Amino acid sequence: MIGAGFAGLYAARGLKDLAKAGHRITVVNAENFMQYQPFLPEVASGTIDPRAVVVPLRSVLRHCEVEIGEVTGIDHGARTADVALAGGRERRIEYDVLVMAPGSTSRVLPIPGLAVHGIGFKTVAEAIYLRNRVLSQLDVAATTDDPDRRRAALTFVFVGGGYAGVEALGELEDLARDAIATYPDLSPDEMRWILVDVAPKILPELGEDLADYAVERLRERRIEISTGTGLASYQDGSVELTDGRRFAAETLVWTAGVRPSGLARLAGFPVDEAGRLLADEYLRVPGLEDVWAAGDAASVPDRTTGGYMPPTAQHGMRQGRHLARNLTAWLEGGRLEPFVYRNIGAVCSLGRYKGVATVMGVKLRGFPAWFAHRSYHLYAMPTLTRKAKIAADWTVALLFPRDLAQLGSLERPRDPFERAAGA
Q1: From CA 263, how far away is CA 269, in angstroms rounded?
Q2: CA proximity to 288, closest of 278, 297, 302, 273
Q3: 57: part of which helix (H) or strand (E)?
Q4: pLDDT in tens, 209-223
């Protein structure tokens, strides 16, 4: 099995009976944990401890062989996969059945300066870095005498008006507003938060009325929303938009979508125009014997809409569970069942106590939507231990002031030792 994100982890967990029956299940993943991405905004704001949103693979997949590394090639004719292991060693793994769930990566466009100076928001490490970045920029602004530098330090640009961009901006603006109150020489009015998206509306999945509500609530917090325009360049600390506007900003966060892993295309498997691995309604890859697919990197037919399922967490985890059931039935001579799932809704946090959501056709705004967002994701978080840790973090956040510690030194842990050695 390649990948241990939402689809891969739940598929692997569902194969426990096969492992008991003597089948060997090998899971290959780049990290030794699965991260629950919907909680990354709260990791960035410091509401949730980063360790609470990652699930150690070896703890929950004791019935599997877990290999930490990157799959560099697949020869399905020979039934082998080449893996670059974490220690730098190469290994060739033989298989009988291949499950493809390699997930997705940030979709970085060839915009001048973006790859060098932009910040992504798809991993725990990026969330921690962004928290440190926002807090350190307040220090920069408080200690500079240059008004232009101060203005640039307090300008934060987010490109991408989907769930990731809106939730990250909402949480971090809340964090910065609390933090700036501790700086006697800074005012919240000096901060500039900007959300940019090429689409005519943000949060299109939620419908026009909820999207408009979200825009109103964000603008009440002096957050600028620029739709119908995109990023043209980001060089020398200057943001240029496609509508011609240009301004200085020292922080730019890129949340403009994801792209599927290129592993399926590299292996010569059938893919759609976006590069997602084609799968049928049973989560098998047509024309390839013994290959199954699920998650962000799979193009799975949606029998309820006639289209294809979106790359979301709720679809990925359910595809993984269903794949495990079908794969078990196939190996044991049972009947395969088509994967049918109707989206139960969508939830989006706009920061602490604020949100928008649609759940089973019911539209929610404000605190009820925020509560629904937390409740759903706490329910979906794997393992009771992680659920308990997150609930404890939320309880502490309700009872005590926000933690405003900036741990930027974590990104350069050897600096103090090297300075001491030089002295």
Answers
A1: 9
A2: 278
A3: helix 57-60
A4: 999 999 999 999 999
